[in-house]
């Protein structure tokens, strides 16, 4: 397996930190032991946990006002795969990359080869009918899968089928559909007819889905449409999954909900009715801010994982949620943000594993609200960093991925190889 | 038919206003004629339109901080029916009263008699398991239909069945269930189990529903529960209606949604999937403010009616939404607020009837967003007051209900008969 | 004065509509007369009312996901001025254009000449330190006026001073500052120090402001910064205006507030404390959606104008608010959207002029909440379209600007002259 | 000093836990030592930290829908003081009680005596003009300090002055004013005149404030008023404090803001301009939910304390914020909720003390957003429970206050002494 970062640099970085990590791990182990928890069992679960990295996540994001590129921006999907390999090398928790077509369109053989150099696989394929690609004959300005024009809908369906075809060659097992279709004005769109058209189009895509694939549809309250959005919430998303078929599931992006909404409850509902497909992890304070996972409200992330672990332990039917990060890194080095975001997701998972579920069930039964919530809080406030560090270390990664990454000079190196990109923005306000 | 307000007073009030009303009606008729609309057809529809008044709406509301009673507060359901009769007499648009048990518990025969004096009928029955009634054996502090304790759930189910029994005697044809079950702390409740228990309880109630009745369940984002609510949104409500049975429908209260949510789109979805039961009309700026219908965002109310009229004209399957006001009148005379709120609901209906739907469908097909939204705006900004006034006048009501009511001295009169109530509040903060 | 649209086409369009308009105007005049209002006085005020058009508003907007250009997009500020001339010709309510530097940088003499061909003047100058311009030496990626680096702050200050210099040549009398400075992560920025730096920089700009100019600063809750924004709300904006000097004022953009916020109350506060500078009109349902003014919540726009008219009639001290549209037209012809938006702003103004303020003051004094709010509603629901149409007609514009514009074939013509632009987007997600 | 809970019971509870606590404390000390932090210095600060308990907090709260009383509810202020003594005995972090007049009106001598039995002092006095007290001559239905009627305003001013008088006898040093004045309908209130009246009334109260007292005014977005509130946000609150005088400060209640608002930034602004008076701690998910501090978003509470500790260490001018809990306990034993809430506030304080501020300042200067936010996260995720437990233990309290409290049987005991209260609610909907 190739390594983008020199192994000896990682080893040296770990050497300086191993002793402290082991001390912290031991102290935590002792504390957990007192609480009746075997730390090694938790460690094993954390080691087995993985999150997919979106190919577009390793480039610098932006807003409609501007994009301020970083140094050494990846030029194409092959550069992106190398950046993803860095993340996987140091965190050992991101074994797959999620592609976005047409941005990542390339010869599938070359893609497989490029990924296999680093032992990387391919997660869900992502289609794009929210912007017009070069040479595209019909525009998505007024919609794609729900467009009033049948030819435009057909073009959008065919694009999704192409994504499946590419994915089949790459070993992907899922297609994720997120569209921006909607309206900016009351009356612009007939809600019911638009949704009928959408359902018909999704069913046409589903008809081409291989038997061992899953279809993920994603809801979002608003943006890019600012009055109505065709898949605006989990209620509509649930109907889609239900009407489309057994292998159709709902994808939850943590930033796609109305203010104040209880997201963990939506997660529970989708699990209960067998329709949770997976997640786009990120965090948000206002809208679809696409901030780093756990950076704004880490307790909310924990509460989501509390539902996931609960379902996992209860053996919920048809429960195998896909995990993917989906973030926009505007002011940080994307590789660094992704490495820390993976750790935040692992942290939420590890903490959720510490919940004393038997005690919790008892408090719930007895309506002992205070002790029930304390049971969650006790798990949440436990500092599981030693477990995460040990998991990385055991699997060949870095105890402190940021430190190892910065010490490696990777960003400086690629900045020398990849030409600088001009700042963008202006005009779209 | 008895009249609570002296008929000659109403006649005198109308006399002063009839000429101006006829002039405005004629001018509007001319304008509508130019737009290809026959004003008399609109008038006829408005005359046939009715909204139920909630019995509790004629009392002064309050908040957890205080209740400031008004003069002449109704002492019991019989006083309330008299107040409702005033509203119907002057507006001729509120032919039914919606009862709330146990608040309105009384001998059904007496209730029917009291209502029939004024030609009033009974709309949906409302059960109450969000507070503990006098002499109730098990408390709803920790839930009712979703309580962890089976006996408490059974008690709540039986209360709903009692509501059906009373309603059967009164000629009601629907039961509305709104519960406050939920939690104030993460972990207090197991979301999935609570919802399973809820579904089981609702099915037990549904089993007792007469064949010609409908069951309405109401969703609400929060309050009185402040972390999670068992029927938190239309997605959950839709699942309930779907799982429960053919005669189970969703009720939409305009103030029960997350900030910024597109409510008219939810209305469209429920119509499309055959599960819109009806409305609790009111308005809100922040939460479940229970303000007067149309008082904060009249265009939103119009957009809701735009969906309803669209479905009505399209002959949507199983479409016969129940209309009820559900408001809290804290600083106004409840009778006045209810009379104006009825007018606001009629206004939204009348304006929605003016939408040029053929033109609209064309603009939608062509993605002419500007003309589509203008088509709605043209209808909305038409001042339909002359139509509403004429509808009231034609059916024996008041051209200006507030003026007629104030001139009648009704409030002064009942304030003399009904003893003053002490201010409440304090302690619940 | 040159005309971009053939005058005879406009005349013909008006000819078809004049009779109906006069009939409607007469009927409305009669109704208002009964209400004690002289329609001609209202007409005169509406005729005198003007709104500035932002130069960037005539181009098609977009989101971070995509931009879908329209036909005949303006290539430069001179094309933009021609488009603005169309709007002014047909609406007669947009006598000035507001420039944005560097986007509109050009020889001031040529700019003046270009505008004077159409009798257009220049409104407030807008600086841009939220994106990096070509050839700019220091980046605004991490801030501009509040940047931690003094040289970057100086560059941003100098850019604003340059805007003043250009504006002086053009006859502008105000500088508007909106910046995106803020942070995406807790801890990224020291709130207090950043605000100190901001205040220092604004004072340096203010020091260069000519005596007869005003400085407008604009607040915004979020975007492009997603955790904190240096001028996040009116409270901070008020402090800025207060600390900076007498000619420093707050600008209110209707889409820049937290969900549910009572904007008309903020307007009242700023008037009361002498710091309301003016408006960026638009509408929003979710965030800074930049939708067409009045398209989502026309009553809110009316309530804002209710405050403005109240202050105007009361002779509030130092009250002369600047009016500007600031919208993003993603799915409509920008010229059409701007023409209708101007009409919506005029509509709100005209309706607010109809409020019976003496009656209102009496109801307020007596706490007659119902009649107070009815007094506003009566004004709002009056269809003032005949007044707006007559104002346009009297001043040489079009009774129906959209119809006249579409009939003129202007968009088709410029689409032939101005080369098509490729769709954008993709990559910034 | 008297003890409400048997001392030997507490000792026994501690005995079982001391060894584990010491082990955890030692392990944490070692870890902090590696990070350059002396745990004992942190411990000392935590030991010195106190939060006031509101007298009304020890009673069960409720909503407008219902109140479900708990066992052994305090009958009067003397029962409440005993409950507060329990909290202080076990947590050793709540040395003062905050009274609410008229609810707690009693002979000041008896009050002082009752409190001094337990070594308790009195924090800020709270006035109440949001509900009508028994025997009050003029109603606050339409406002108090901002009422249109001068006599009602005078009555409200005098009530506040009475609160000062009582407070002087009790040794209080601050008056907190929160009012519900506002409106439920557009037009009901003239915003500017209402605020003028409010300012005049507050100045009249301020004129009676002793020289060593402070005046705290509290803002709140909505509830009990649902369209406008006279002190709606920190901007208005800042103007009040500024216009009123040097000893006038703003009080921040964490649940009183618009959705998504960045509260820690408001805290920073108020500190920067010398007007932060203090806090009403609680948590919220939707509105003014009054949930237990830190129960919904513990990271937000930490971020607030990050600002406070930053100001404390920087020696911000005139910085001595008052800390008070203000919560509504609807489903828990209030004593338990208050004990845990105090711990959550201490936890946020302790964690904020662990922030490496020198490193943070460097990252901020260099725009290293990732390391800046990690610096906060590292502090936040440190489990400081051993420090809190040791602080309680060292000062004579309980290592685990909930366990000690439950073991004591206190609630059972008072339930035997204090008569049961009937469930309330119903009618106010």
Automatic annotation (TrEMBL), chains A, B, C, D:
Pfam families attached to this UniProt entry: AP_endonuc_2
Keyword Phosphoprotein applies: no
InterPro entries to which the protein is assigned, alphabetical: L-rhamnose_isomerase, L_rhamnose_iso, Xyl_isomerase-like_sf, Xyl_isomerase-like_TIM-brl
GO molecular function: isomerase activity
Annotated ranges, domain Xylose isomerase-like TIM barrel: 96-289
Residue runs in coiled coils: none
Keyword annotations of the record: Isomerase, Manganese, Metal-binding
PANTHER family, per the entry: L-RHAMNOSE ISOMERASE
Name of this chain's protein: L-rhamnose catabolism isomerase
